[in-house]
Amino acid sequence: MKNLFEPSSISEVKNRIRRLTPESERQWGSMTVAQMLAHCSAWMEMATGQIKTPRSILGRIFGKIAKKSIFAEGPLRKSMPTDKSLLVAGDRDFAIEQRRLLDWLDRFPTLCIAAAPHSFFETYSQLPKLATLLRELSWSKHLLLLSQCKSEEEKEFYLLSATRGRWSHRELERQIKNSAFERTMLSDLKLATVSRVLPDNATGVFKDSYLLDLLALPATHSEADHQAGLLRNLRKFLMELGDGFAFVGEKVRVQVGNQDFELDLLFYHRDLQCLVAFELKAGRFEPEHMGKLAFYLEALDRDRRRPHENPSVGVLLCRTKDDEVVEYAMSRHLSPALVAKYETQMIPKALLQRKLHEWSLLLQNSSPDEA
Q1: pTM, 2 dp
Q2: Ranges for the YhcG N-terminal domain (predicted)?
Q3: What is the CATH number of the domain that holds 221?
């Protein structure tokens, strides 16, 4: 949605105002062109606190209903009721009102923030990289980001993810609640110390842990239960994986020599342009799991990978893992692979933030050779 905090939108509106003449055909009620220009200036005076209107009893009762239509994406409906203080009567000088409104458009962003600061405008006015994405999400999603996310990096992560994945408000709320940002950043930090063979653009693609509470798995379950649950909830699992993943198949047959093997789940990632193989383990990670995964990746690259695609990536999805054991197992591993764990219940956000802080300190204190 266009807004007056965006220079291109301001320029567009100013050009439209400059094209007006006293004889322009009106597309509003009974006001003249000069009166309508004055009316628009009055709206800006109210938005910046120059005009303060008392709130009536009816306004308190029906305010929430009216707010939905006012803040909805798209233009306001014609002939909507307005406050009496904004009504313009009597003759107005067209040239004066035109210059006045153009001047308001130049000053509005600054005055609005200074006179009536709002977290939305305060935040994005200081973050130009995020401000370019303002109109990609609805107001309700922006308000959710501002109320739930603390750092600029967290806001940027969810803003980009919600835009690319076309998340609904409910899905965005679920991803924030399930700490998708912390789990993804934690994975990136760990991969920086153990993996040197993943694609350069793999940052932000994979998570250190995946929340599979949607499967309702019992405390004791098999890999077959795990796989069946994921397939029954494939759409939700794709949402948990993140944007860019496309499902290819399950129990994918891999033939090497005279033997047949089965790969649990196979996906394709559009941005990485490679196949992504998921191997499911209902128990803890064991070093020997890496050998089998490397075998599958080699088979995929030889028999299924197309000339324009990048080498296949493997993900071992285990019930539990010891990070130190993983680091040892992957230190000399040459295949593009990583180890993640799955959770059947939501991980406390504070715990993930603490782990993220610990790994950040670990990387800061590591020498270049160690990292």
Answers
A1: 0.53
A2: 119-183
A3: 3.40.1350.10
Note whether 41 and 101 are within 8 A (CB).
yes
My answer on whether 235 and 109 are in the same domain is no
The predicted pLDDT at position 116 comes to 44
pLDDT of residue 112: 61
Q: How does residue 306 score in pLDDT terms, banded at 50, 70 and 90?
A: very high
Q: Is residue 122 part of a domain?
A: no
Q: What is the pLDDT of residues 227-247, one digit of tens each?
A: 777 778 888 888 888 888 999
Place of tokens 């509470």: 213
Domain hosting residue 70, numbered range: 7-117
Q: Which positions ≥6 away from 125 have C-beta within 8 Å?
A: 5, 109, 113, 131
Let me know how long the chain is. Answer: 371
Q: How far apart are CA 175 and CA 167, in angstroms?
A: 9
Domain count, the chain: 3
Give how far Cα 350 sits from Cα of 78, 177, 318, Å. 48, 12, 23
Is the separation of the CB atoms in 1 and 136 below 8 Å? no
Q: Which tokens is 185 given?
A: 């950043």
- Reading the block at residue 40, the tokens are 């628009």
Q: What is the DSSP letter of 207?
A: -
